[in-house]
């Protein structure tokens, strides 16, 4: 049985494969269901996104910032300093103390969150519990509901296998539901036979955000970062100048440590050896002996560790935060802890 056959079996699909998954009973480990993404609204407690940037806009809103102005929130009473606005003088305190005092205020600022969700073919993979694409979709839905609960704006950039879809940030439940529906459709369109268009990828995604001239946003990238280059990371650094950028690396355990062979497989008796068959959807290769398997394991581990180290090093050099999640089914709790939740 091929991997594609196993996927179809788990989905309960006894007919030919169809692009319309909505009428089928989906295995939530392989494909995310729209109703599941909606139900995640009930799990938004226990964490929050705290604004970390100084506000750069004069528009009023709800989040505290270090921007000084004539806002609604009183901060302190202090001695007058040269350059202070005389309209902020507190005449009663000035008369009582004989020294000029001013009242200092902080304004509140709105915050928009843009969720960049990778749903390319490389995300359609897992060796344990859940596909990387499902992990990304569920974290995006959880984050969207949390942002909406905080009465902030949330937008989506969905990187499909064939195109990139953008939805501007809005403070609207209907907008979130619409985007979650689009996200579920993009997720269910994935298949082992899909091939990515050359017009999608991290480079195209970063160029799109650059054209949008994003300012004062929190931008969260949910991806396995497949195909990312140092130039892409540098462009993210440019986005960081005017936004908060958070990277979420979704990795599968098999990518960093090839599944350990059973004791029977590593025994010296070749009669107990179980051969492995690996494939990419088009071609298959039989690892007929222990030496071939060990060579493949070492090559996969070295390739993934090098890619991961390069990514983390680039992010660290550019002072860009990174969270790592896995596909073992505990991603919601992992994400909440990583962003400071209980």
TrEMBL record:
Residues 1-22 are annotated as: Disordered. It holds the Pfam family DUF58. Residues 76-258 form the DUF58 domain. InterPro entries: DUF58, vWFA_dom_sf. Residues 1-16 have a biased composition (Basic and acidic residues). PANTHER family: BLL2464 PROTEIN (PTHR33608), DUF58 DOMAIN-CONTAINING PROTEIN (PTHR33608:SF12). This is DUF58 domain-containing protein. It comes from Photobacterium sanguinicancri.
């Amino acid at each position: 049985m091929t991997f594609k056959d196993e996927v179809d079996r788990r989905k309960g699909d006894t007919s030919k494969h169809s692009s319309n998954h909505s009428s089928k009973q989906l295995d939530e480990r392989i494909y995310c269901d729209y109703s599941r993404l909606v139900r995640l609204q009930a799990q938004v407690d226990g964490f929050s996104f705290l604004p970390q940037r100084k506000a750069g806009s004069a528009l009023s809103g709800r989040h505290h910032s270090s921007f000084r102005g004539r806002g609604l929130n009183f901060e302190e009473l202090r001695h007058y300093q040269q350059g202070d606005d005389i309209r902020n003088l507190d005449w009663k305190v000035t008369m009582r103390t004989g020294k000029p005092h001013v009242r200092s205020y902080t304004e509140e600022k709105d915050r928009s969150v843009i969720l960049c969700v990778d749903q390319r073919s490389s995300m359609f993979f897992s060796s344990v519990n859940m596909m990387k694409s499902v992990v990304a979709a569920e974290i995006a839905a959880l984050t969207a509901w949390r942002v909406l609960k905080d009465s902030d704006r949330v937008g989506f950039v969905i990187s499909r296998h064939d195109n990139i879809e953008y939805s501007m940030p809005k403070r609207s439940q209907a907008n979130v539901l619409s985007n979650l529906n689009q996200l579920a459709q993009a997720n269910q369109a994935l298949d082992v036979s899909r091939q990515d268009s050359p017009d999608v990828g991290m480079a195209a995604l970063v160029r799109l955000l650059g054209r949008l001239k994003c300012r004062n946003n929190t931008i969260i990238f949910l991806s396995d970062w497949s195909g990312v280059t140092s130039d892409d990371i540098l462009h993210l650094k440019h986005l960081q100048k005017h936004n908060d950028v958070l990277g979420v690396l979704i990795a599968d355990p098999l990518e960093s440590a090839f599944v350990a062979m059973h004791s029977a497989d590593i025994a010296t008796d070749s009669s107990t050896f179980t051969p492995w068959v690996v494939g990419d959807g088009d071609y298959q290769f039989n690892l007929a002996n222990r030496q071939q398997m060990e060579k493949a394991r070492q090559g996969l581990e070295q390739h993934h560790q090098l890619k991961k180290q390069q990514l983390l090093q680039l992010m660290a050099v550019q002072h860009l935060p990174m969270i790592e999640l896995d596909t073992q089914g505990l991603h919601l709790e992992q994400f909440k802890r990583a962003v400071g939740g209980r």
